## 1
Amino acid sequence: MVVTGSTRNRFGGQKPSRGFESPSLRQKILSLYPNILWERPGEAPKWSEDDGIIVKRSSNPKESTVEAWGLVDGQPTSRHFDLIIYDDVVTRESVTTPDMIQKTTDAWELSLNLLSENGRKRYIGTRYHFIEADEVLSALRFETKLEKATLARVAFALSLAKEGRAVIPSVSFTGGEMKRPTFIGEDEVFIRTLISHAYQKREISEDEFFSNRSLVKNHIDSGAAMLGQLFQECGRDADKLLENLLNEVEFGGRRETAGHGLDIFVGRTLLQRTELIVELNNTARHANCS
């Protein structure tokens, strides 16, 4: 296992040998795991901040059982781990400029080579995204050829589905402005319904709905950060990004069956719940328009 932070010197402080100050606690833990823990740290082949710690184990890989490394500074090479824990790899200081964000992202991508086959990753930390949602959407517009408003809707929907009421309120009030008609269009009732369902609220005020501190803005900003991260995970491949987003969609409702030709299901009548079908290829019922 390796624990990685933004820089290696973050792990300065207490040495591993000072882990059990209480003798009673130490003896209790040793009694529970006698086949893993050494009675005295000095018996271990390695037990230090620089070299990591090695517990009792049947194999003898070159990697220590637990090691601590930096991500941007001090990242190891020629090692492979079954578990990598990323602990606060992003700090306020590391996201102040696009270049610094890219540097951290590149270091993270490089660190994935340290993971063994079928290895696991865990992340601990706070999401910082000082880069504007407008910058992310503009970059993705160039890569995907989709309109910025379309990408903003995708970001909104992704955040609403993934985070819902737990979304972090936006702290960014600068950057490009998206006009209400551009984002909402003719779908205000539909978008309000989505928000009402997610937040379990029958009434959404105008300020809550679309303003500089609205739920829509919170989810666009949060969703843009998600899209940016997903784009990096897809190797900055626009087609792969769109494919992964498509896999997030759950299709429901009526599906077409073989033999229906050009029949289109429109809906059901209000009282009898009878299906309304437009048969585009049935000129006796519907005149085809060219």
## 2
Amino acid sequence: MTVDHCFESFASQFPFPIKKAIRVPSSIEITSLTKADAPTVAEFVYLLIDEFAPGAGPDRRAMTAIAQEVLPLESVSGFLAKIDSTPVGVMLINECAAIYAGGKFGEISELYVRPEYRSKGVAAPLLDAAGRHAEDSGWKRLEVGAPNQPAWERTLKFYLREGFEEVGPRLRKLISQEG
């Protein structure tokens, strides 16, 4: 009897639908981003922005153009998580420098994992790759901005479990590009 047959037999006993959980293989492939990954990166960042503020992000075509412009920059690095050659997560890191940080450091600007793969061990290998990249680059630290709390409490708890510490809120000011 196959595993799928056992599951179907088990699930048929209930008066409501039971979904089979996605099993994440022990092998998650992490690759460095290239300009060729721009469409995938743009789609994932679009979905990330849409989760935080539905409908507020630029259109997908504009995001792809931005990704094609940003990915080749020397100060930008990133990683793609794949399972069975299918992209399931992405992380972008920017090199920054500050006196308070002791010199150069990395800032995680985007981290997205497809919802069906969350809490399944995909983001941690992306952070591991970022940590190795930070060491190789001679950075003193990695920083990340956590989304608004308490709505995104799971995200904050994830970063804390991964060794990050809370240091306060992040603020922004948009700069007008009008002539």
## 3
Amino acid sequence: MPVRTSGIVPVPPGRRGASNPAITSETHSPEVATQLTRDSLQAGKDSSTAPAPLAATVAAAKAAAAAAARPAAPPPSPSFHVPLITVLGAPGRNPLEQNTRVTRDYHKLSEAFRAWLGQPEFPSWMTFGQHASHEVGLSMRSMALARRLLDDLKHGLTREPHRIHRWGPAVADDLAGILAHQGALRQAVSMVLAESHLGPLDLVAPGIWPAGKVLAALPRVVRSVETMAGRLEEGNRLVHDHIAPAFEAFLRAESRGQDGLKALDSAGYVRGGPKDPEGLIHEAFTWYRSARLAPNPDDRAEKMHRGNLLLGIHEQKNVLQPIFDQVTQEFASASHGLAIHDPGGNYPVLRDGQGNWAVYSDRMGLGRDGNYSEAPGTIPGYFRARLHDARLFEEPADDVRLPERPAREQGARPTGLSGDWTSLAR
């Protein structure tokens, strides 16, 4: 279902239209008129009871009509724990440890939101976010490994240059093995070959391997890998600092029986303000609260999906796109084969290898008509595909760590790259 968002965010149910006009003594609503008729008949039947004054009868009828028109009270907020979220601010000294903290914050907020929403359960943005953050952490780990691989490659090509004709093919075999797998190591090797104007077949061609071309290309590839790793860390941190405090403020107020939307305003998430320039965060939580009051599972699912999509638009457009704009060229060669991994399996993005993940319209499925497509391979399509998958509530694994650096060989002639890089590329 396409979603239209051209600067105007749809107003959630329950907020459209004007309130009922005031009921006057001259014109009565059908409910008031019916109540007055019943009072008059009762007074005529029972002569021992004097009829109530007209003004009092009208007031009572108005009160009854207002009570009938009043929406059902929301279910009481359950008792649940809301984690304390601390804004990260500056980059941490260990980006992978900071990423693990982001992922854990998201999981705790996902569980708190899950308790607030109640049954039937549907994933919130935080539920998706915990797996996205974990995926970013794994990518950061792979980038760090790629940086080590490039250092190892440079070391191998410069250690004994006069013997390159003897052991160079062993390095080429290692690189060919890495190319057989997906991931950042494969992307790093592909970038080395592209910058060297070589192809995969050059790794298995007979003769002397062109080490000079590879060495000349390495500094450019190293800069690209470091740039992408830095942007991943920055995006992960900024998204956390933009959205996690909003969930905390909303849920903490709701857990105390207070208005979560007013708490958003108090926390600085005012429509049009610096934290919520397009009002998307505020509208997303309005849809979330409407989902909690939804009368049936299908209605709740659609309202949850709308809230998730609005937060996704804010995240991708207002937070991440300025970062992606700095690495558009790098992602042009790294987007092929990308996938989102979560407990539901692998979700390939940019189907048929079309597009660039750094381009907002490509990853969000934004058409020229201003509609967001939920086609496979887009972020809205991913939200839709996983909307009913309870496996997303699982906590991501704590596996975002770097392995020990392989020890370099001493004295012996190198027979390839140090360490088993092919196994790390899997």
## 4
Amino acid sequence: MVGEKTYQLLRSMGIEKVKTIQQMPMQLFDNVMGENGVSLWRKANAIDSSKVEPYNEQKSMSQEETFESDTIDVTRLKNVLISMIEKLCFRLRTENKLTSCIAVKIRYSNFDTHTMQCRIAYTSNDHTLIARVKELFDKLYNRRLLIRLVGVKLSHLVNGGHQIDMFEDSIAVLNLYQAMDKLRLTYGEDKVMRAVSLNHSLRGFNPFNGLSSSPAALQHDREHTRAHIPSLKSMNKLLGIKKYGQTATTDVPKVVSYEYKIVINVPASVQRYASALQNNLCALMPDEPPQRLKARIALAQFLLNDCDEEQLIEKIAHVTKHHGALLLRIHNFVQHNAQGLYMHVPANDALTQLIRSLRATLCLPPSKCMYMNRYDITILTKFTDALNKKVQEQLPAKKYEADFMCHTIALQRRAQALANYETVAEFVMGVY
């Protein structure tokens, strides 16, 4: 799967099928698209020299610290543990994971090693885990001996975003974590931390290979690598390749904002039934017909610049390949307000998990994004009072139930509020 911009470039080169790429020389793709072109040509020719490695789901993450000199300073030990929790929680949120088991480890100067763990509700919040670490350490450290090593381990990891606790969490604290994580990813992991962690610098790299396991360092490496790969936009400008029927110029390209929507397209049988129902209802009020909409299930709606579209497609593809096909059910009709008619689609665990994965992976600003909390299929909107009265009279007699499998989701966009949506890309569930 390629993005919209790569697709336009390939079509301008006369390429419509993979077979055409196979018949073209690799040097041509290297000259036009650089490393991206070579990679595309090798994939089209089924050439891949990478090592086949079995997939292993990460089950835990941990952090340990061995002191240069053994210590009995309890305050220092607790501060080191807090610093470890900060780093591990940052990794959890960056990798979109939650933990439900925390363990504390201490090693005395005589090399006696003791651990203690406890189960907790799934979380990735600093304040929750810090409180548990302190409790475990107070129970575990019951000998007046010097300590050589302390460590923290988070296990029973699952993918997903944090579920807000109405009694312990607050929006202000969660927004604070989000802002801190953004600063760490941008400027480095050690740029924002609690005051107790200032004097306790933990090792953030593997001494055997010199590689850092910090999410901030990994992102910096990826950005540094991408900086040396020419973008398609710069190649189009350099080569003067036509785009959307226009010759490339030296002018700075205009950034266009689109309204995007992630949807599930329903089967043809449901489409036909919805269309017939729309015709019947519109015939009741020919002078003031309601607004007809194509039958589909909306999952998310947001605003985004076109220059970020290719990255958006990659993120959605990353989510869908980890989710299998969805079994969905349509159960009769509902009216959420007095101005619309909908087919009711009850939420299930698989659909809820898909929404959570999209929310965590796309990381869209809340001010420009809306994730649906109802997944019903819109039939008609903008009812008049007269039509609404007639619909309410007929609605109890209308029954419709159907089960169907959803194998794909689609990304659509439109440039204006009243324009029709165009499909940008479709994603097959569970396909790598």
